[in-house]
Amino acid sequence: MKRLRIEHATGFTYPDEVGASYNEARMLPGSSDSQFVLSAQLDIEPSTGVNHYTDYFGTRVASFDVLASHSALMITARSLIEVRERPVELSDLGWDELRVEAAGSVRTVEMLGQTPLTDPPDEVVELARRLAGQHAAPSQAALAIARAIGDAVEYMPGVTGVHSTSAEAWAERKGVCQDITHITLGALRSVGIPTRYVSGYLHPHPNALIGEPVDGESHAWVEWYDGSWQGFDPTNNIDIGDRHVRVGHGRDYSDVAPLRGVYAGGDKGDLVVKVTITREA
């Protein structure tokens, strides 16, 4: 088990003052059976009131508006979390049994449908079907498919954008964790395995020194359902470990974007993002 301190600052600087902005932030992790939140707070500048709630998928949300004119908006989430490893536990649930279970719950049914971001190209569908046909259990097939996608797509920032689709990233065979996760989601859903997009953070160094702050970034991985939800990180082709901090999940990135909002007046602002992760224990 590791104890990680995360500081995630994100916001916008505007060339001219804007009249007002209305925003939602999904940047604070929640406690679960694999992580325990010791502290978590959200600081907003300019200072304003905040409404905290949990969304439909179970992600913590901070909703706020800034009604006074402002030339910059900065949100800083500070969290201290204890995290344990969550290796994949393969299930012997069969394909027919999975179809019955998946159809019996809204939470699994809605993770079967494709979205514009996850809709897979034919080549990905063919890959997923071929690998699924080689395994008697969906859990084994899911792991094989996720690993195959991770092997096929190179992690390379700057090739894709936040709105890039899985088909666009697959065509380049390059992208960031968001793209690799979207491709994996599309592949697994195409063979009938309910799969959800998970947002969070990953400490970049497996053997991090205690007390040393390092530059990090938001991260994404998948969780598939085979009787229970199993997580896997296809970008790094690793199980979910004690370096992964989970924030929330949804159908794709758009359900769990760290910050979203609208503003009135002024030109488009420049995005500012900085994530610092420190191992405390």
Question: Your description of this structure?
Answer:
This protein is α+β, with helices and mostly antiparallel strands. The protein folds into two domains: 2-84 and 257-279, Sandwich (Immunoglobulin-like), CATH 2.60.40.2250; 95-255, C8orf32 fold, CATH 3.10.620.30. The chain contains six helices and 16 strands. The protein has helices at residues 95-103, 106-109, 122-132, 138-152, 166-172, 177-190, and strands at 2-18, 20-25, 35-45, 50-54, 60-66, 70-83, 154-155, 174-175, 195-202, 213-216, 218-225, 229-233, 238-239, 244-250, 259-264, 270-279. The strands form four sheets. A five-stranded antiparallel beta sheet has the order 3-6-1-16-10, with no helix packed on it. A five-stranded antiparallel beta sheet has the order 13-12-11-9-14, with helices on one face. Helix 5 links the parallel strand 7 and strand 8 (174-175). Helix 5 (166-172) packs across helix 6. The longest helix is centred in the middle third of the chain and has 15 residues, at 138-152. The radius of gyration is 19 Å and the shape is globular. The N and C termini lie close together (8 Å). The model has no long low-confidence stretch (mean pLDDT 95).
Order of helices and strands: EEEEEEHHHHEHEHEEEEEEEE
Count of β-strands: 16
- Our measurement of the CA-to-CA distance between the termini, rounded to an integer number of angstroms, reads 8 Å
Highest-level CATH class of the largest domain: Alpha Beta
Radius of gyration (CA) equals 19 Å
* Beta-strand percentage range: 35-45%
- Sheet having the most strands: 5 strands, antiparallel
Number of domains: 2
Shape: globular
Regions with little confidence, pLDDT below 50 for 5+ residues:
none
The second-level CATH architecture of the largest domain is Roll
Major sheet: order of its strands? 3-6-1-16-10
Q: What does the oligomeric state look like here?
A: single chain
What percent of residues adopt helix (DSSP H or I)?
A: 10-25%
